[in-house]
């Protein structure tokens, strides 16, 4: 009854029953809800960082802290260079992920495999960059509870800077790592023809949502720690 | 719900590959502008000018977030029901950010006004040194700083 009335009226009554109000599958809605809760977790971390920074008189200058890159000589001064490479790696891997999702919609297995491999390479490249940076900072004496960098105005800094930096980039890096693991599982499932048998590549879309979220969080982390 | 439904609504908008290309270019350009502003800010010392540039960077950051969520995560092409379910709760961030950052600022002002020790600690300059302790100068200041350090790290 209700289906016939909704079909006859011009406007679709999404909440009138007999229809899926979001018109997406269950797993995708749940992925969105998970990402929302994750957004609040990251938001809480970043806002805590902002609050502490706002309540302190001095803060280290990111351009002095993050000024090196791999294979650079000792006294190199190249702020923002390395982190911009990291940012572009993540953006490009996000693009290849969209292309994989698109190939999945077209039921193009080859395209999915190629773009998933590129996405995984991008993720691993980003993790390697982060590993190098953490290692480099650790060699300079920075770690949780240790801050060798002075405030921008030359006064003594607290350990808040390094604590927040390592906690938040670490939490983000852990998300990238889980994203790479999920993407590898998706790649294996594609290669085993699991999605061909199901008749759709919707799992790739869900993995894609997670991967884009990781990129989205990096946009905020990158801005808050390196630019501001 | 059948899978048939979820497949079809994606076909309503134009060429997806062209859209992906467009958004990639927009994201790259926004990032490059952010980086240019970041480099430019290194040489600027004026506090109000720095604040203005930071404001622009935050706006660019929000624009990037919009493009990623709307196009890469495909939210713009979903039903309005789903968009509202996700975007409306995120509005809590507006109050979340306003309340906490102003609280942080207020705490700083209170401490600067009523805690002379805190105020004094945060104006003592530490001489820049390559490694190890500096040999001489400002004994008073260094003494005070060393005493304050363990308390601060706790």
SSE diagram, text form:
The complex is a heterodimer of chains A (228) and B (154).
Chain A: H1 2-8, H2 26-54, H3 62-65, H4 81-105, H5 109-139, H6 160-191, H7 194-198, H8 202-227
Chain B: H1 3-8, H2 16-42, H3 47-72, H4 80-90, H5 92-114, H6 116-121, H7 139-153
Protein architecture, described:
The complex is a heterodimer of chains A (228) and B (154). With 228 residues, chain A is mostly helical. Helix content of chain A is 70%, strand content 0%. In chain A, helix 2 runs antiparallel to helix 6 and helix 2 (26-54) packs parallel to helix 8. The longest helix of chain A is centred in the C-terminal third of the chain and has 32 residues, at 160-191. Chain A is globular, with a radius of gyration of 22 Å. Chain B has helices at 3-8, 16-42, 47-72, 80-90, 92-114, 116-121, 139-153. With 154 residues, chain B is mostly helical. Chain B has seven helices and no strands. Residues 1-11 and 131-154 of chain B have low confidence and may be disordered.
Report the β-strand fraction of chain A as a percent range.
under 5%
Backbone CA Rg of chain A: 22 Å
Number of strands of chain B: 0
Structural class of chain B: mainly alpha
Radius of gyration of chain B: 25 Å
As a percent range, the share of helical residues of chain B equals: over 70%
| Number of β-strand runs of chain A | 0
Task: Give me the CATH architecture of chain A, please.
Answer: Up-down Bundle
Number of domains of chain B: 2
Low-confidence stretches of chain B: 1-11, 131-154
Report the biggest beta sheet of chain A as strand number plus sense, adding barrel if it closes: none
Q: Which CATH first-tier class of chain A would you pick?
A: Mainly Alpha
Average of pLDDT of chain A: 91
In sequence order, what are the helices and strands of chain A, one letter per element? HHHHHHHH
Straight-line N-to-C gap of chain A: 59 Å
Query: Largest sheet of chain B, if any?
Result: none
CATH superfamily of chain A: Cytochrome c oxidase, subunit III, four-helix bundle
Percent range for helical residues of chain A?
A: 55-70%
Topology of chain B as a string of helices (H) and strands (E): HHHHHHH
